[in-house]
Design goal:
Number of strands: 5
Largest sheet: 3 strands, mixed
Shape: globular
Radius of gyration: 11 Å
Number of helices: 3
Structural class: alpha+beta
Length: about 70
Amino acid sequence: MVFDGEPLREALVQMNRYSHRRIVVDDPELAERRIAGVFSTTDIQTFVSSMSATLGVEAVGNSDVVLLRRLN
């Protein structure tokens, strides 16, 4: 999956289409942040780790859902 300036919310829709593990964000401002990168649709963990590193968010969740939220 290639993202080149799409909002995070749109990228999550695309990534969630290919995984049983959903990635969600509940912060409207964070959801509009633009992202770029190339990600495998079968490697959700790398996508989540990249978002954590580049957007300054933390990932919390379980085997079914991962919430991306701002670091306090």
